Amino acid sequence: MILDTNALSAVAENDAAVVKAVAEADALAIPVIVLGEYRYGIAQSRHRAVYSNWLDMLIHDCSVLEVSELTSRHYAAVNLELRRIGKPIPTNDLWIAALCRQHKQVLLSRDRHFDLVSDIKRVEW
């Protein structure tokens, strides 16, 4: 299961429903894009040290999905598909969708615009 930024935030806040979903997953992965978004949020928090330490520990239990040349092909395809139907999504979410498609993994997210992307499945809590 791949975590979107809002899922990662919910895990950090110990949201019972998302913690349950994560606990039931066979394996967890975090896109490097999500890490960037989350670290940006941490940088603005009064609780930087706590969240940063928590994230460092979590990363040891997850795979970090890097962007590769293959990812760029999925990115281009997803972007083109969504533009053709007049439903573009934010750039970072295009990269996340591309990684989901590339790795054939379910995405845990509350962002419904991922439902527009063919060949990926989104679940929410």
Overview in brief:
Helices cover 56% and strands 10% of the residues. The chain has 125 residues and is mainly α. It has one domain: 5'-nuclease (Rossmann fold).
The CATH class designation is Alpha Beta
Which strand order do you get reading across the main beta sheet? 1-4-5
What is the succession of H and E elements?
EHHEHHEHHEE
Largest sheet: 3 strands, parallel
Q: What's the shape? A: globular
Q: Architecture, according to CATH?
A: 3-Layer(aba) Sandwich
- Which segments are poorly predicted (pLDDT under 50) over 5 or more consecutive residues? none
State the distance separating the first and last CA atoms: 13 Å
Looking at this structure, what is the CATH superfamily? Answer: 5'-nuclease
The number of E-state strands comes to 5
Determine Rg (CA atoms, Å).
Answer: 14 Å
Number of separate domains: 1
Give the amount of beta strand, in percent. Answer: 5-15%
The CATH topology turns out to be Rossmann fold
Structural class call reads mainly alpha
Helix percent reads 55-70%
Mean pLDDT: 97
Helix count equals 6
Describe, in plain words, how this protein is organized in 3D.
- With 125 residues, this protein is mainly α.
- It has one domain (2-117): 5'-nuclease (Rossmann fold, 3-Layer(aba) Sandwich).
- The protein is built from 6 helices and 5 strands.
- The strands form 2 sheets. A 3-stranded parallel β-sheet has the order 1-4-5. A two-stranded parallel sheet has the order 2-3.
- The longest helix is centred in the middle third of the chain and has 16 residues, at 69-84.
- The mean pLDDT is 97.
